[in-house]
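Protein modeling request. Please complete all fields; requests missing the sequence field cannot be processed.
Requester role: graduate student
Desired output: 3D structure, token encoding
Chains: 1
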Amino acid sequence: MTAEHERTAGGRGTNSGRTKGGSTRERGASRRRGPQLDDAILDAAWDVLVERGYPGFTFEAVAARAGTSRPVLYRRWPQREDLLLAAVTKHWRSQPITVPDTGSLRDDALGLLRNADIGRPRMITLMSVQLVDYFRETGTSFSDLRDAVHPPDRATGFETIVARAVERGELPDVPRSSRVLNLPFDLFRHEVFMTMRPVPEESIAEIVDEVWLPLLKLPGTPPAGSG
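Delivered output (227 residues):
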């Protein structure tokens, strides 16, 4: 066999080996299946969104970061918006806010906002900045996104602590709208949007003591604006 034949045969052997075994990325992807692969893709999608925003959030970028191929993504999330919503939902739900149970509605409310203040400001600020183009393109809003990522049929933190207060007899059992129940977190989120930083303790106390508890007419609470 001539040197040329050896080189040709060696080349075929090398190419054949790559074809048979697949590329490093393909072999890595083939070892991950089901939920493990889905988690890896969604984690990669979140990283791409954080780094590049919605304009850079492409199937190509996510596939490259996840070490897989675009067809793998298309089979799971046919549209870019589907992939983005899945990634945001996974990340949001992976960082739940601990709901206190102190036996006091006021202490529960203050504790809930303090817990939210630990991680939510960065996430809220990030999404409000990085998803501007997404909201414009899809005609949706942050409110729509919030409703989509919140687990269906699950009470919010403030709905939970009010229900406990009613069970304890701390609050009268009367109808209350969702807007009233969740007002503290709406005000908290507004504060984050306006300042782009965590909410200070004095603002948390004002939200609870000067706005929400008087609105709920908690016995012993002074009327809003008094004193």
